[in-house]
Amino acid sequence: MAQRGQRIENPVTGQTMIFLETGENTSGEVFRMEGIFRPGGFAGVLHVHPFQEERFAVTQGTAGFRVSSKQLQLGPGETIVVPAGRPHTFWNGGADEMRVVMEFRPALAAATGRFYEVYFGLAQAGKAGKNGLPSIWQVALQAEEFGDHARLASPPWVVQRAIFALLKPIARLLGYRPFIPQEAAAPARQEGRVRD
């Protein structure tokens, strides 16, 4: 479960996230985190948050945004609010480190923090492509779990769900399992006898 003060890194997208407030700390009102993006860092593919408004406040550097079909850049002290259901993505639009505080309203219980733990954990485990997404098989297994927090911007959710439902049993046959960050971070156990 996401904890206040927790820091996670995504080596593929160049993001570091620090959880500032979670749904548990705010009675479900807001999930707040700071994003630190190295030059070239990005937030992944165009996506939507179907039930959450997302607010961005740039504190350092230049943030590039695509919201629906519009592109814009914001600097320190500038903010943007993306309404629920609006396709968007963002990236470091400058040559220096970018910092932005992001708020999701409402927090949606534990789903928001867990999404980032899984998404970043898959990248740390070498299971994400250059676009930051895990394989379609992994997405098929976990899309339903995180569908209330984040979805691909297209095709429509009903089509995504139908495709993922078809792919999920194939993913299991191929050996894919839902990713659990705690298991990936656990040290490997050594088999055999313990010597005195």
Notable traits:
single chain, 4 helices, 3-stranded antiparallel sheet, alpha+beta, Jelly Rolls, 196 residues, globular, 6-stranded antiparallel sheet
Could you characterize the architecture of this molecule?
- This protein is α+β, with helices and mostly antiparallel strands and 196 residues long.
- It has one domain (1-179): Sandwich (Jelly Rolls), CATH 2.60.120.
- The protein is 24% helix and 29% strand.
- The protein has helices at 111-124, 136-146, 157-173, 181-185; strands at residues 7-10, 15-21, 31-37, 47-48, 53-60, 63-67, 70-74, 79-82, 88-92, 98-105, 151-152.
- The strands form three sheets. The protein has a six-stranded antiparallel β-sheet with strand order 1-2-3-10-5-8, with helices on one face.
- Helix 2 (136-146) crosses helix 3.
- The longest helix is centred in the C-terminal third of the chain and has 17 residues, at 157-173.
- Residues 184-196 have low confidence and may be disordered.
Major beta sheet, specifics? 6 strands, antiparallel
- Listing every helix as H and every strand as E from the N terminus to the C terminus, the arrangement reads EEEEEEEEEEHHEHH
Shape: globular
Strand content: 25-35%
- In the CATH hierarchy, what is the architecture at level 2? Sandwich
| CATH homologous superfamily label | Jelly Rolls
User: Strand order of the main beta sheet, please?
Assistant: 1-2-3-10-5-8
- Identify the CATH class: Mainly Beta
Helix content: 10-25%
The tally of structural domains comes to 1
Radius of gyration: 18 Å
Work out the helix count. 4
What is the structural class?
alpha+beta
Number of strands: 11
Overall average pLDDT: 90
